[in-house]
Design brief:
Number of helices: 12
Distance between the termini: 26 Å
Radius of gyration: 21 Å
Helix content: 40-55%
CATH architecture of the largest domain: 3-Layer(aba) Sandwich
Shape: globular
CATH class of the largest domain: Alpha Beta
Number of strands: 9
Length: 295
């Protein structure tokens, strides 16, 4: 499917990678980007992520067939309200946010007011690096992209959106927004909290200097995602706080059971803990699970 005009609202890692993929594959006649800083215009154009970068939202989205919100979740409602006068009828609006329930609930009725269609998306791809400088055209290759339609989503718009994600290399999966949020609270949001706490605790200045020198490859791999955007992950944690709080409680209970096994010197329980983890991870890897870090 070829699009006449696609607008990226926010041209960072995800927005920039989408722009690069679109231009590399020739999927849109023109790719526009909305940015907040004048300096970002040159960055986006130099990277080749867009054909034009604008500081004014309304002209950026005018005549766009597809508008993709690539900003932190907390900014999406305000930006959507501002761009409504510029949206053309039957335009498709989507996003790349890591939480879908609140986003879909707020944005679908707003966008429908002007005769356009909002359908949520979440590509399970990303990196710990931020900004358009880290963007790459193959970021979405073979990554699952969850699409969260509602009973109000037009079938034609839904098919077009799924075809869009296929065209940039992703594999669309339909889920209800609330179910998506439950799943990612375990597989994406919990790991980020754990990685952040590991970095906070182990690298605390309260420990001797030698502590950091003993942090090798395993620690680096385990905490890699802690280098992600604090603003983005603040918004994600708050937007999905009910699910995240629940899975944190279960996670803490499991750790307490492991601690009890340590206190008792329960060799069998400790070995079973590590063996179960090894088996489950190897089975997951063997099923061809995407190793991308979701945003």
């Amino acid at each position: 499917m070829h699009w006449q005009r696609i607008t990226l609202v926010g041209v960072g890692l995800l927005g920039g990678s989408l722009g690069l993929a679109l231009k590399k594959r020739g999927l849109a006649k023109r790719v526009a980007g909305f940015v907040r800083r004048a300096a970002s215009i040159d960055e986006c154009l130099k990277k080749g992520a867009v054909d034009e970068a604008l500081l004014d939202l309304r002209p950026a989205v005018e005549n766009a067939d597809l508008v993709i919100l690539c900003t932190p979740i907390a900014q999406m409602r305000e930006l959507t309200e501002k761009m409504l006068p510029g949206l053309k009828r039957d335009a498709i609006v989507t996003d790349v946010g890591s939480v879908k329930g609140s986003v879909v609930h707020e944005l679908e009725p707003l966008v429908s007011r002007v005769g356009a269609h909002f359908i949520g998306s979440h590509p399970m791809a990303g990196a710990e690096k931020m900004g358009v400088s880290a963007a790459r055209a193959d970021l979405f290759a073979d990554a699952v992209c969850v699409v969260t339609p509602t009973p109000k989503s037009p079938a034609k718009a839904l098919r077009s959106l799924e075809e869009f994600w296929r065209s940039v290399g992703a594999r669309p999966m339909r889920l209800k927004a609330d179910l998506h949020d439950e799943f990612v609270s375990r597989s994406s949001h919990l790991p980020h909290v754990v990685a952040a706490e590991l970095a906070n605790y182990v690298l605390s200045p309260a420990h001797p200097q030698e502590q950091a020198q003993l942090c090798a490859t395993g620690f680096r791999d385990t905490t890699r995602i802690a280098s992600g955007s604090p603003e983005m992950w603040r918004d994600i944690a708050l937007a999905n706080r009910k699910n995240l709080a629940r899975v944190l409680g279960v996670f803490i209970e499991d750790l307490q059971e492991f601690r009890l096994a340590l206190d008792k010197g329960d060799t069998k329980a400790i070995e079973e803990f590590f063996e179960m983890a090894r088996q489950r991870r190897e089975k997951w890897c063997g099923q061809g699970a995407s190793m991308s870090s979701p945003e």
